[in-house]
């Protein structure tokens, strides 16, 4: 498909020879807004790290369309809040891709940081140490850092964890703003009601794609039940697996052309995977 910004071909990702995401095939359409859901340990964060290049594929590939820039926001738990830094310093890190580590910030850069802080409701917080921020305030600052990156593709890993309801609402509005600007946004989320209300597309993972497509179809009860069964049957020392010919089942969803792989070898559940539509 010609409007794909990310393409997965039999992508398998993992740690210490143990795969955590198996045989992902399909594409992310430019300008789409996609939630990535699944139980803890289902491969959601692993997929994000594979897309951004922090984690190299064990097999297959993840291809980024030429000229596309990615902004990645990891989980708060992966950040060192003890590092002596101010809010303005944290947000300014978003300028590194364009200015370099030792680049000189321009007047326009400082204005961009100021506008980003206003957009997330943190004006006046510029000189606050980040270790004095609440969880919601820190997430707002991190969203401001993403804003100044001005990226084409935005990856957000669990951005709604440990934040208050007002902050969640404000962050959802920012995500919808990016979507309205035809940026491609992928968000790891746990709250399925939030996903149903705000995300047009969803990828349901249980270490392999269970369903992928329009959210209302992906989150059907039978798909959620199958994902739970797969999660319960998996274990951390899962063996390496290879797809057998004829077991990759494709389904169409508008112009997304996503694909599913419905079987993991050595898995107690050997039924073919569900279709999302």
Automatic annotation (TrEMBL):
Similarity comment: Belongs to the ABC transporter superfamily.
Any single GO BP term: zinc ion transport
NCBIfam families: AztA (NF040873)
Limits of the ABC transporter domain: 6-232
PROSITE patterns assigned: ABC_TRANSPORTER_1, ABC_TRANSPORTER_2
GO molecular function: ATP binding; ATP hydrolysis activity
InterPro entries documented for this protein: AAA+_ATPase (IPR003593), ABC_transporter-like_ATP-bd (IPR003439), ABC_transporter-like_CS (IPR017871), AztA-like (IPR047748), Metal_Ion_Import_ABC (IPR050153), P-loop_NTPase (IPR027417)
Keyword tags: ATP-binding, Ion transport, Nucleotide-binding, Transport, Zinc, Zinc transport
Species name: Aminobacter aganoensis
Name of the featured protein: Zinc/manganese transport system ATP-binding protein
PANTHER family: IRON TRANSPORT SYSTEM ATP-BINDING PROTEIN HI_0361-RELATED, METAL TRANSPORT SYSTEM ATP-BINDING PROTEIN TM_0124-RELATED
SMART domains: AAA
Taxonomy, superkingdom: Bacteria
Renumbered residue ranges of the record's region Disordered: 241-277
């Amino acid at each position: 498909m010609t409007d794909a910004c990310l393409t997965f071909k039999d992508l398998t990702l993992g740690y210490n020879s143990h795969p955590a995401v198996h045989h992902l095939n399909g594409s992310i359409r430019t300008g789409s807004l996609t939630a990535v859901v699944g139980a803890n340990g289902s491969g959601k964060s692993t997929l994000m790290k594979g897309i951004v290049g922090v984690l190299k594929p064990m097999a297959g590939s993840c291809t980024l369309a030429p000229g596309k820039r990615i902004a990645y926001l990891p989980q708060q738990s992966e950040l060192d809040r003890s590092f002596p830094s101010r809010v303005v310093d944290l947000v300014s890190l978003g300028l590194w891709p364009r200015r370099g580590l030792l680049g000189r910030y321009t007047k326009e850069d400082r204005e961009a940081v100021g506008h980003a802080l206003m957009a997330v409701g943190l004006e006046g917080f510029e000189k606050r140490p980040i270790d004095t921020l609440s969880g919601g305030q820190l997430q707002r600052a991190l969203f401001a850092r993403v804003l100044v990156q001005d990226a084409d593709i935005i990856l957000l890993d669990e951005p709604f964890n440990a934040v208050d309801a007002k902050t969640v609402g404000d962050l959802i509005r920012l995500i919808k703003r990016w979507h309205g600007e035809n940026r491609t946004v992928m968000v790891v989320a746990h709250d399925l009601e939030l996903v149903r209300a705000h995300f047009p597309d969803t990828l349901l993972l249980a270490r392999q794609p269970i369903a992928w497509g329009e959210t209302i179809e992906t989150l059907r009860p039978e798909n959620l039940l199958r994902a739970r069964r797969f999660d319960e049957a998996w274990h951390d020392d899962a063996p390496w697996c290879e797809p057998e010919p004829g077991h990759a089942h494709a389904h169409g969803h508008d112009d997304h052309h996503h694909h599913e792989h419905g079987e993991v070898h050595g898995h107690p559940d050997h039924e073919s995977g569900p279709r999302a539509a």
